[in-house]
Amino acid sequence: MKLVTFLTGERKTRAGVLLDQSVIALEYPTLLDLLRDPDGLLKARVAIHPRQQLPTYMPLAGGLPIALPELPATIMHTHGSVHEEYTLNEVVLLPPIPEPPTMRDFYAFEQHVKTARANRGLAMMPEWYEVPTFYFTNTSELYGHDNAVPYPVGSHALDFELEIACVIGREGKDVPVEEAGRYIAGYTIMNDWSARDFQMKDMAIGLGPGKGKDFATSLGPVLVTPDELATRRTGEGASERYDMPMIARINGHEVSRGNFNALHYSFAQMIAYASRNARIRVGDVFGSGTVGTGCILELGTQVHPWLQRDDEIELEIAGIGVLRNRIV
User: Fold this and answer.
1) d(CA 27, CA 218)
2) Could you tell me if 57 and 178 lie in one domain?
3) Could you give the residue ranges of the DSSP H alpha helices within 72-169?
4) Which end of the chain has fewer CB atoms at under 10 Å, N or C?
């Protein structure tokens, strides 16, 4: 399924399912509310039928299938219910998870790390190969598809970052890597906007990225459940990855191309590491870090200058869609 959080014309926030160019509204205010309901994904699956044929089995957030005859009667009754339906041009898409409990951003693509460091005259650090490290970023400045993103005041080196993110669908702690994939509710596109001049100053002090990252993160346009991507899967368990090309465009011109399957660390490894001695919660967002070539810092300003007001950035990931924002 492709799930969304959106604003109706009456400015009401709703969760929904995207089918072609239509949005089927669900009973939840946001996708976070849906994911917190143990039966939420099952209700969403049933709600979009008979538009689609009901499958014999439905996957839970944790990746385990359940047979339709075993579904609670209250859920099956929604099969005949009438759900509000909107066209895409009647709604405003918000970040799929508008207010995640936490948001971690990892550093999982080797090509990006190596190239970005080499551009600064730095060698690869051996510690990077030991753990899938991350930082916590700001959850209060999130933007959805086609939302305008404000240029950070005082910066002169604005950059984009092309990433894929997963959303956690189950609470856990000390999650074994072999089971970690079952904690993924779905995947979305992430643009980790970066003020490089702010970032470099913070990190020179020994902390950060701090103000270099906290002003904006874009997520969207949809949250895609793992079953929707099954034909793209290239690994299983702790090695699970997907063949999903990732493309970035600035003002319609392609500047970056990579692939989800180039991850050095899988999301299962990220989840296992993040949950060590710490609780992960439903709705937590885990960013992959920048795919190889996926930012100006790595490409170099000779390829494209730092971003300016009125630039339009499109990030596309096969199987998910396009996340587009204009800088204002």
Assistant:
1) 25
2) no
3) 73-77, 110-118
4) C
| pTM over 0.85, yes/no | yes
Alpha-carbon distance of 321 to 246, in angstroms, equals 10
44-71 pLDDT tens trace = 988 887 565 545 455 555 455 555 455 5
Nearest to 191 by CA among 216, 151, 161, 157: 161
| 3-state DSSP assignment of residue 188 | strand
Ramachandran angles phi, psi of 36, nearest 5°: -75, -15
**CATH number of the domain encompassing residue 131:** 3.90.850.10
Q: How far is CA 321 from the centre of its chain?
A: 11
Token pair for residue 294? 């996926």
Give CA–CA dist 300/327, Å, rounded.
20
Q: Which two structure tokens, joined as six digits, stand for 27?
A: 């009973």
Coil, strand, or helix at residue 105? strand
Please, what's the largest Cα pairwise distance for the chain?
A: 63
Residue 20, SS3 per DSSP = coil
Average pLDDT, the chain: 92
- For residue 297, the surrounding DSSP H or E stretch is helix 296-299
Number of structural domains (the chain) is: 2
User: CB burial class (10 A; 0-12, 13-18, 19+) of residue 54?
Assistant: middle
pLDDT on residue 54: 47
Residue at which a domain ends, from 66, 93, 120: 93
Amino acid identity for residue 24 in this structure = I
